[in-house]
Amino acid sequence: MRMIYAVAALCAAALASASAQELSPERRAFRELYRELVEIDTSVATGACTPAAEAMAARLRAAGFPESDVQVITPEGWPTEGNLVARIPGRSSDRAVLLLAHIDVVNANRADWERDPFTLIEENGFFYGRGTTDDKSMAAVFTDMMIEFRRENLRPRRTIKMALTCGEETSERFNGLSYLIEHHRDWVQADFALNEGADGELSPDGRRVALNVQAGEKVYQLFTLTVTNPGGHSSRPVPENAIYRLSAALQRLSQHQFPVELNPVTRGYLSAMAPIVGGEDAAAMTALARDPQNAEAAAFLSRDPAYNAIMRTTCVATQLTAGHAANALPQRAVATVNCRALQGHSAEEIRDVLQRVINDEQVTIEIVERGESSAAPDLRRDVMGPIERAAARMWPGVPVVPLMATSATDGRYLIGAGIPTYGVSGRFMVRGESNIHGLNEKLRVQSLYESRDFLEAIVRDYARQ
User: Which of 128, 162, 419, 428 has the maximal Cβ count within 10 Å?
Assistant: First the structure.
């Protein structure tokens, strides 16, 4: 069996090598940078961000960045959580665009994966590995772009800044961007920022449907539901059981649905996507955009988790901890509930809703994380213009559609600090195919290279402003 794995690994390496040899020298260098970044384990469980930050810093210095324009910032007490910041000064020193990407990744257990999660494998038109999409693809694109700009001695009018940060996936533990905003604000201060949060959408048959641009996101909130009991010996069970009571509370929560609420971005998204998707979906989208109280349209779209998530606040149980011994009645049962609240709803307001839904005084609900403000930034012409021009050149006829992200990104910290932040990647994919945060994460090879070309085009446009 070991021999079979060895042969398979050699074959995969040979195919990847052959594929890389077909690339131009520039793309080959980019692919090597991407490979190095993916293969540095930056997960909390088994890796660290600092080696990745230092590796990318070494590449910037080798390209000629002076020490004054590149720095690895490692917070005191967090030696593994290094963050890389860099800049190319502009002629208008008070104007800047920030390129933001996170280098930490979700944990990955090798035994569960079909391939080594921390080896970049190119196979069947995809790159496989943890972080290939989220978010080392954009981190690699931005780093390679900065290297290219430096080597051609680009003198932009607008300063170009880059921040590769740690802790986006574990913000409740440590967040590098939040730390930079508080302690090194000058490195990230900008007129606006580009970040992850939106991709291009492919139809199942590979047709480009729309290029999305994230403008705002839902608010990440975390709660715990706790039940405590005196406990006792399991040979003498009693009706009152912490696990049973908590289970009943979670069952009531699972049946609750928050009301539909649309904002200008989500209403615009539904209106723009309706003629693209067609069919019953289009009719429901049009009807709901016209009247958010249309219960029939809302019920139809709610069957799709993606549409449901942009229509309303959602809360879901994600973790359970209960009991202290196999032969004892549970003294404590705790559930973690993750909510993605629509903009304008505080953690206290959502907690009050949870209390009404659960309706049990023995279930204590505590706020663990309140989330950051994520008010949607204006769709400014100086931001959207370059995106629309580059998209029209690369993918004629593909509409640019703003959306509200239902997941949380580090953009919420920048928006909270007064820096408008837009999610745009130029990566096209079929919905769900990359399996971000899951097993066998992957990204289309073509999408990666197109993303590199697209982001370079818009950043060059911003640099000339």
Answer: 162
Return residue ranges of the chain for CATH 3.40.630.10: 2-217+374-464
Beta strands in 37-125 (DSSP E): 70-73, 83-88, 92-102, 121-123
Say whether pLDDT at 17 is over 50: no
User: Which residues does residue 382 pair with via DSSP β-bridges, in sequence order?
Assistant: none
CA separation for the pair 316, 305 (Å, rounded): 13
Terminal C-alpha separation, the chain: 59
For residue 126, report the phi and psi dihedrals to the nearest 5 degrees: -125, 150
* Whole-number average pLDDT of the chain: 93
Please give the sequence-ordered ranges of beta strands (E in DSSP) within 91-191, or none if there are none.
Answer: 92-102, 121-123, 126-128, 158-165
CATH of domain 219-369: 3.30.70.360
| Side chain identity at residue 60, one-letter code | L
Residue pair 120/129 in contact by the 8 Å Cβ criterion: yes
The number of residues making up the chain comes to 465
Q: Are 308 and 302 in contact (CB under 8 A)?
A: yes
Letter for the amino acid at 70? V
Q: Is the predicted pLDDT of residue 7 greater than 60, yes or no?
A: no
pLDDT exceeds cutoff 50 at 8: no
Task: Take residue 289 and report the two structure tokens written for it.
Answer: 């955009």
Q: Which residues contact 395 (CB under 8 A, 6 or more apart)?
A: 200, 208, 211
What would the two tokens of residue 180 be?
């930079």
pLDDT in tens, 238-280: 999 999 999 999 999 999 999 999 988 899 899 999 998 899 9
Query: Coil, helix or strand for 381?
Result: helix
Select from 376, 450, 374 the least CA-distant residue to 199. Answer: 450
**Spatial distance between the Cα atoms of 100 and 305, rounded to a whole number of angstroms:** 28
Distance of CA 238 to the CA centre of its chain: 45
Q: Tell me if the domain spanning 2-217+374-464 has CATH number 3.40.30.10.
A: no
Reported pTM: 0.85
Q: What is the largest CA-CA distance in the chain?
A: 78
Q: Where in the chain is the domain with CATH 3.30.70.360?
A: 219-369
* Cα–Cα distance, 127 to 30 (Å, whole number): 14
What is the sign, positive or negative, of the torsion defined by CA atoms of 13, 16, 17, 18? positive
SS3 172: coil
Task: Reply yes or no on whether the pLDDT at 94 is more than 50.
Answer: yes
**Quick check: 72 pLDDT over 90?**
yes
